Every structure is written in structure tokens, then in C-alpha cells.
Write the C-alpha cells for this entry.
Amino acid sequence: MTWHKNATISCLVLATAALPARADNLLIWAPVKVSEQSYKATMGFCLPTEWETSAGADLAFAAANGGAFLAGSQQAMLWGKISKVKVMPASTSQLGADVRVDTLRGSGSLNLSRSRSWIFSETMDMQATRSIRLSYDAIDRRSTSVNALQALTLIYPWAGTSLSARVGISSVSGDLSSSVAINQNILPDLNLGATIPELGSSVQAGNINLNYQITW
């Protein structure tokens, strides 16, 4: 990648970031000034079909005080998404696929997912999720890798509590990974969560987080 190509991408982001943000049902247009000398823009389109389809690009760059582009700060990511939601009286299912290609670094990924939520009883809902991710990393010279994930979540709407367990496997290491997590809504905007990763490991380490969200 030559400086001239990077400069062309960067100048395009700089020019679009100065324009007002615009978005509607068919057009995705979101330029953002991340900091004083860094910019990012997401642009694309949506198609009004039975399968919700969208595609576009993420462009970004950062510059030093002297105006020179910072090495490695340029981003030119192409992406595409497709999904379909089916709503039934007591359940909801969703199929989806998304692809991302880093045109500057030669890496990319394809993610296929399927989820289903349903009413299990009067006091509990359940959600099952499966996904397969294929990725290629040109920087590490790594061939295509496959990661599979399956998760099950129990939801108690009346208490604002959810308990989830997930298991994953990677084709790179062949190892299984697993974790359990619990989330509790304390207030409408306050959430308490705890996670215990790597259940099969001899050394257990968990984390607890408290999130507060403000909307204005």
C-alpha cells in the first residue's frame, strides 16, 4: 500500500466527515470526528427485501500535529450483513450472516449465526444461539481458522435476571472454552454482571462489572 493510496482514502474520509450526518431506511451515512485529528465514516445502503440486507464500508485515518498520516491508522473495511427474523406467538428465531474484509491488511472474516428465543414457562424465557466464524489473518500469515460457539441463556423477566452458559471450540488450538455469566438489572439503567471464564481450568478467575447507562 503506497502513500498515495492511503492519502486518497484519508482525504475521502476528511471530506465526508465535514458533511452533516444523514441516515434513512435505505442509506447509511455516519461521518464522525473521533478526536481533533482523527476521523471515521461509515457509509452504505440497505435493501428493503424479505431478508434484511445491508452493505458498505468503514473508512478512517489519523494525523500527527504536523499533518502527516500516522502509520497504521488508516482503515478501509468493507462489510455486508444479511438477516431474517421470524416471529411466532411464543417464540422468535433469527438467521444471519455477516462478512468483513480489511482491504489494507488483507484479512477478513465470515460469521454465520442462528438464534431462537421462546417462552419456556410462566416465569422463564430461554434463548439458544449458535454461530460459526471463519477468519483469515494475513498479518500473522495464518490460514483460514474456524471458531464455533454455542450458548444457552435462561431469562427471568419478572426479576430482571439472566443466566447464560457458553461453549466454544477453535480449529487453531482444538481446545474447548467455556464460561458462565449472570446479569441482574438493579435499576432501569443500572446493571450488575458477573462472569466466570474457562470452567475447566485449574486456575479460576472471574470478573464483576457494574454498568450505568445515561441517555439524553
Observations:
- Helices lie at 3-17.
- The first helix runs from residue 3 to 17.
